[in-house]
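Run: sequence + fe (iii) ion -> complex structure.
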Amino acid sequence: MAAYTFIGPITQLLTMSGLPLRGPIADSELPLFENCGLLLRDKQIMAIGNYANMEEEARQVKATFILLEEPCVVLPGWIDAHTHICYAGSRAKDYALRNSGATYQEIAKKGGGIWDTVQKTREADITALTNGVIRRALRHLQNGGTTIEVKSGYGLNVEEELKMLRAIKQANRKVPVDLIPTCLAAHITPRDFESGPVEYLKLLTSELLPLVKQEGLAKRVDAFVEEGAFEPSTIRPYLKKAKDMGFQLSIHADQFSTGGSEVAVAFGALSADHLEASTDKEIKLLSESSVISMALPGASIGLGCGFTPARKILDAGGSLAIASDHNPGSAPMGDLLTQACILGAFEKLSNAEVLAGITFRAAAALDLQDRGKLQQGFLADFSIFYTPHFSEILYHQGSLKPDRVWKNGQEVFAVDNNK
Ligand code: NIG
Ligand code: FE
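>> structure
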């Protein structure tokens, strides 16, 4: 028998429904319910409407009533569509080195950077890796994240990449958040692989990707297209193979130099992520394609470099998702709302554009059609903030945290106000 839950009265509820996938959004366009009730049927949203009018309907279906006595705002759960939260070790040393003048690329060349995390991740057993993912995912959940994409990419050989993807799968069973795995074995060519990038990528397509598919470990493949990682011409045959095998693609593109976004467009990737170095040419290309541009302000903050040209992308008619890129190297902070708000302040994004970037536009970047908006039939994934107006949440730039978080129609986190 179905279980019904009726929640309210809610001072403001933003559905994020009916908004465009691409281009600018004004705050005046935000679909807002006031003094409303939210009726859930099992893990889905059944109805949203005037609280008083809905009370009778809720009683008839014998709903459990969740009474909200304080002024409160309800928003869809955040969707963080780009993270690397499966890793071991710390790169605090890299951070200090960068702030003393070394660049990310220089550190990588000397064997630090990604390779440092690869060594630590290989040393960790699967249980330790799984526990790390669980710990970080639960922190995202407390900040309002209900869906988190998680990449491999610190194993960089068949066995170690499988270990990472299995750890993500195990963690997914133990946390209420949905973890969406992506195979990023094409992060860099590992230093202990002597035959070079072309042979490394061939090994991935002949040995790793078939196993990933067979074991159902990931439906998505990512690649780091960059100087010092993979050149566009080197990565193309790999992406073609991955696509032919049925994997969906996302690309680390235009982080320090351009070239990656063109590849993302050519292969019909779901998203091109980073784009800090994109010029007007790349922005035009992206906005004329179906590829979603993904800004990663956490990496700009971690590296102390410029932000993705988010305003220009939207004004050109592109779609903009915003993700945390949570990783031990360039983006250790891992607080999506804070980062999205900071990007908004620097890039002059409306509140609506910031919220769209971490809800339904992020869902589209993961090809998930059942979340990112609060409407009938969608997953009941949402946060409750005890504040009278949604603009307070953005104004506080992430320091105003959710008081309660719901995932699949269940409360999975609540602030203990007695502590
Ligand atoms: O998205 N740019 C490449 N990959 C990650 C960083 C990984 C790392 O430095 O460990 C990123 O920023
Ligand atoms: Fe990344």
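>> summary
The chain has a mean pLDDT of 97. The pocket of fe (iii) ion (ligand 2) is lined by residues 82, 84, 252, 325, 327 (CB under 6 Å).
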